[in-house]
Design a protein that fits this description.
The chain is of the alpha+beta class. The protein has two helices and five strands; from the N terminus they run H-E-E-E-E-H-E.
Length: 172
């Protein structure tokens, strides 16, 4: 009697491995750009939210003093001044408070921490002798429609700021 010897192999064939690698590479190729785009959009959402919070703090300051705080007048426009008789001096606050006001100190805190990008890519400008303001922050997502909409809304107050993907907020 002749025994039939069958070889039982539990390994994958080369073709099966190549097909599996090709499927995984296709999925990664489709998912990675979407994932990176989601991170860009999330950073833009955070920037827009911070600008809106800063706008609220500025409006609270305006309701107390009848004018928006002075900007630094320097190239970065990165300092908010709200102390002194005219509100044109920096407040002697602690290092944990960025935007406060009061005659001689930090009696009223409007925003404990300014956005991290303030003064480097987010800019504040006082306009019309304290009657208006402009805030500008660049967005990474070039297809974000909010930048064009914000520029159109604030073009009368901030015409020099309307360029590219900058998101503009004004006193409205």
């Amino acid at each position: 009697m002749i025994k039939s010897i069958t070889k039982h192999n539990d390994a994958f064939s080369l073709i099966e491995l190549l097909v599996s690698i090709a499927v995984i590479a296709t999925i990664i190729g489709l998912a990675l750009p979407n994932f990176l785009g989601a991170r860009t959009r999330a950073r833009d959402v955070r920037r827009k939210s911070e600008v809106q919070q800063f706008k609220t703090a500025l409006q609270l300051y305006y309701s107390d003093y009848g004018a928006y705080p002075a900007d630094s007048g320097g190239p970065l426009y990165g300092t908010i001044k709200g102390c002194g008789v005219l509100g044109t001096e920096s407040c002697p606050c602690t290092a944990t408070i960025d935007f406060a006001a009061g005659g001689s100190g930090c009696q009223t805190i409007y925003m404990s921490r300014l956005p991290d990008e303030f003064g480097t890519s987010m800019f504040y400008y006082q306009k019309n002798s304290g009657g208006d303001f402009c805030l500008k922050v660049p967005l990474e997502n070039t297809s974000d429609g909010d930048s064009a909409e914000s520029q159109g809304r604030c073009d009368a107050v901030c015409p020099f700021m309307s360029s590219g993907t900058d998101y503009i907020v004004c006193s409205e």
